[in-house]
Amino acid sequence: MTNDVILITPKPITLERINMGRADNLGYISIMKNYAVSEKADGERFLLFVDKDGEAFLINNIKNVRGTGLNAPALKNSLFDGELVLCSERKNDSTHDLFAIFDVYLLNGKSVKDLPLIPDRYDIMKKHVSMMKTTSSHEFVVKQQLYASDGETILDKCNEILSNHSSYNYKIDGLVFTPMKLPVFGYYANKPVSVSANMKWDRVFKWKPPEQNTIEFIVKETGIFHTYGDGSRYKEFQLYVGFNIENNEMIDVLTGLTRRYDKRYKPRNRNSIYELREYILEGKAQKAHIAVNENTGNCYTTDTNELVLNNSVVEFSYNTQNVMLSNERRWIANRIRHDKNRIYNFGSGPITKTANDWDVAMNIWRSISKPITYDMITGKTSIEFSESDIDVELSSDDKYYNRFNDKDSSKLISSKMIFFHNRIIKSMLYEYPAIKGGNRGNIIELACGQGSDIDRWMFARYKFVFGVDYVKDNIENPVSGIYKRLLTKYYKTKKENKDRYFPTMIFVIGDCKHKLESGEAAKGLDKTSEDILKIVLGKRGYSDKKFSHLNIFNDYHNVSFDVASCMFSIHYFFQDEASLGGFLNNVVSNLKKDGVFICTFMDGKTVEDKLHSNHGSLLGIDPTSEAVVWAIKRNYSENQRSPYGKQINVYIENSGKFIAENLVSFSLLENKCNEVGLKLESSEMFETTFNKTISSTNDKYIKDNLQLLDNDPNLKEFSFLNRWAIFRKIN
């Protein structure tokens, strides 16, 4: 089988306690509603492909192919997913291997992956398994998908499976939870997605008894032996996991600037982005001490009594019961993963598909350290959640629980609203200042986020973009952070056209309610950012040796700006009067005379009136998928007199969690801007701008996209809560 063939095999992730929370809570994925459960067999995952001649073959995750002896012409060009249980692993002394089907993606050349599991894909499986006659070597069945009916919960179905485990003729080592209504790889009912290579799907979960939760490490001998008090001797092994550098290694400010502006920097080769890394928990590299056999001098696995060799893939469990043991002895080598050792070949083969990835290992570790017990999964013991478990606060290290990245943005129900906000509102604001000398000058982005406006900064032809954001992950995230976006966009742009205009951009970590030019905004958050703020915005000269490999600060120090911008973030500074005052002082002190301040925000009075009319809660539900797309909850008392600190919780699908915001009083903002020398030049509610644009535009592409939003009253309601404003510095 060729390497360009894409295998549709969504891998389940380990179920965590948060996934058993109330289904009506937003911000996390819960199995308590619209999920089916099936038994997890102790077998190997295979795809069953029936070719154009009706011959059926099994294909595993490394594209090895094996025959089945099945000929089923009625199923030609079909693709099923399932687990292969070898005859030696079956309980009934069968001489046949068993292929247990749990999904179907293709039937007679027609894709069925976009159908919901229940009832459609499940019915297809049950109907067509009768055409898979037992061969001399294989038997074929469909796994039963159980789901809650009236008066039941999914946990009742878990109990049904686990309490009847002896009725299955193969060993059950857990449960698998699959969304009932979603297409394969989908996020919403009735909204299919296209499949691409290496896709992940965080909607399918697996549960195993806590004592069976294991992590697969590559082990390396350290050459150190330990003798414990009872005289037993142990060999020390370092534990390693796979590590995707591009996906997991944070891009700090200095690294981001180096990759962009150091002419000596060469982008990493694609073949070198995946490597072995020590497995680290709470800052400590993990090691295992494995008992040495007195007779042979070797170490062996506990379950299978197999030799543990240097540079091999070993499956480990963790002893959570005996807290008196050292951490190293609590790692238990269970068995050798021979299938993965054939790939890794003691270090001479590739790392991929061998040791668990770092993020997978961490997912499993959370299930080990905070286990879901048998009694929990069967509903005999409840799991209590507190507010700290489902955090709604935004901190400097916040990582949104379920954020969509750029590649996923087309899947968003709200994409039509985002088009209006980006293409119409933001573009209009960014292009408001006149072009002088071929560009619009310098812009400072206060709360720049993850850089979703990079395209607009380019198109508007800004010469220099300086961004500040309080959330460290927005700057450093290796997948969706602003430096990752900058580098991806820069190299893509220059590859397409090396002469194409591209602004100079610098981004730092900082709290924009504190003074920027002194570096105070970054103090305690990031030292590099603190230094850069002093150079770019302050009076400090460029002399810091750690920036000597960069020539960017020769041109950009003690900068003033033509435009200051704050898109959908000014609400943070309405916490109290000091925060708003500090923010506006940063705006005015960094703007040139006659410079403009542009901003967008939810209009506080509009939101407040709607919350009052709707008992303190607003909810936007997509009628097609029945998914909650947005929600607003009031956290302040209606008797509150102060315009500051009127907190609401806002949920939007692309953040995937509730975020605390403060209502923005437009009249207060206008008054405070006047006090610091910023005069209101223009302002409008989004609804007014929308109606003007859709009625006046001659651009068919824009009109068609705005029409999509016009046909969606749910999204329009949320969009039209917003306002934009332009202020000009008058002294």
UniProtKB/TrEMBL annotation:
The reaction(s) this protein catalyses: a 5'-end (5'-triphosphoguanosine)-ribonucleoside in mRNA + S-adenosyl-L-methionine = a 5'-end (N(7)-methyl 5'-triphosphoguanosine)-ribonucleoside in mRNA + S-adenosyl-L-homocysteine
SUPFAM superfamilies on file: DNA ligase/mRNA capping enzyme, catalytic domain, Nucleic acid-binding proteins, S-adenosyl-L-methionine-dependent methyltransferases
Swiss-Prot/TrEMBL keywords: Methyltransferase, mRNA capping, mRNA processing, RNA-binding, S-adenosyl-L-methionine, Transferase
Occurrences of domain MRNA cap 0 methyltransferase (ranges): 412-730
UniProt xrefs under Pfam families: mRNA_cap_enzyme, mRNA_G-N7_MeTrfase
One example GO MF annotation: RNA binding
InterPro entries named among the record's database cross-references: mRNA_cap_enzyme_adenylation, mRNA_G-N7_MeTrfase_dom, NA-bd_OB-fold, RG7MT1, SAM-dependent_MTases_sf
GO-annotated cellular components: nucleus
Chain segments annotated as coiled-coil in the UniProt record: none
E.C. numbers: 2.1.1.56
Membrane-spanning intervals of the chain: none
PANTHER family per record: MRNA CAP GUANINE-N7 METHYLTRANSFERASE, MRNA GUANINE-7- METHYLTRANSFERASE
Name the UniProt record assigns to this protein: mRNA (guanine-N(7))-methyltransferase
Source organism of the structure: Guillardia theta (strain CCMP2712) (Cryptophyte)
